Amino acid sequence: MFKRLAWLALGIILLSAGTAWAQGVEPIRYDTPIVRVKDVARVQGVRDNQIYGLGLVVGLQGTGDGSGARANIQMIANMLENFGISVSPDDLRMRNIAAVMVTADLPTSLRVGDRIDVTVASIGDARSLQGGFLLQTPLQAANGQVYAVAQGPISLGGVAGRGSSAQSVHTTVGTVPNGAIVEREVQARDLAADGTLSLVLLEPDFTTAHRLVEVVNAVFGQGLARARDQATVEIQVPAGYQGNVVAFIAELEELPVRPDTNARVVVNERTGTVVMGSQVRIAPVAVSHGNLKVQIGAAQNAGLAGGDGGLFGEFMQPEQSYGTTTVLGGAPSVQELVDALNAVGASPRDIIAILQAVKAAGALYGELIIL
């Protein structure tokens, strides 16, 4: 019932927007799909907690810490001291042991006795942790209290190569699957102690927050939800759910909402990867990059295309005159720009350089992120 009402409410919202467009406002193309609330927001207070500890890995085949790692050798001496064996750190020469940092994320949903994965990373000069065994390591949180204890064989994951030549990609970091046992629970706060719970958007946005408020109010009642800012939506628990907040959250997470994001282009100069949103638009501008001439939008007498109002030029070889242009009407998108550049033989590095130049000229309406 709630889902049908939610879809009806969303239809009314979009119909109202369509009425506004019919009155002379140019419509905006919505390419973002409708998703569930749980896919774009989380309930405030439900989160993981980081725990860590210093441990020792034994059983290494001569690939452990060397004599130069004084702090690590002292850890080994202290461990032996706990077993009643007194030894000077100067006398230790053990390449089969490595000191490691052990880390894990502890969700609030786990209970005493549950198991979690841990990550193990060398903090000394060990060459490899392959085949090692992590000794019992207490894991504490930022408050100094121990919440879990880790122990078990280390797995290094994927390998590179084939047959006898196969080697792990990164040999000084590994995991212990289900290697830590929870000994203390994280005290989670009451999600709706004062009758109100908060949803935190994974991608803060004023438009998304407003749409979420509209859908919640349409389904559960007007005035129950309000946006505190672009990231947080506060919702009063309806009277019918006061004794069953979990059921209310379950219904809330299934509501449909259309998220919105800023126009954004992400480029990776090392790999030549370009990722863009469909809503990124480009203003009229002319760019000359090496032998490549680019004209975006109508530009009379631009000089790059002999006054032709075209959009893109062909790839020019040295001493070759500028060729035919490809005409694209309206406000071109970054996708159309990249497709046209690929069509005329531009390299990924050329495309990235042109996008940077277009952004610097103020003609790219969106955020350009360089990785």
What do these coordinates show?
This protein folds into three domains: 2-9 and 29-45 and 190-257, Aspartate Aminotransferase, domain 1 (Alpha-Beta Complex), CATH 3.90.1150; 48-155 and 168-182, no CATH class; 264-370, no CATH class. Strand 6 (133-140) and strand 7 (146-153) form a beta hairpin. The two termini are 46 Å apart. The chain is 22% helix and 30% strand. The protein has 371 residues and is of the alpha+beta class. It has a six-stranded antiparallel β-barrel. It has helices at residues 2-22, 70-82, 206-220, 245-253, 334-343, 348-360; strands spanning 35-36, 41-43, 48-58, 98-107, 115-122, 133-140, 146-153, 159-160, 167-168, 173-182, 196-201, 225-227, 232-236, 256-257, 264-268, 273-276, 281-282, 285-289, 292-296, 312-315, 364-365, 367-370. Residues 14-30 and 299-329 have low confidence and may be disordered. Helix 1 crosses helix 3 (206-220).
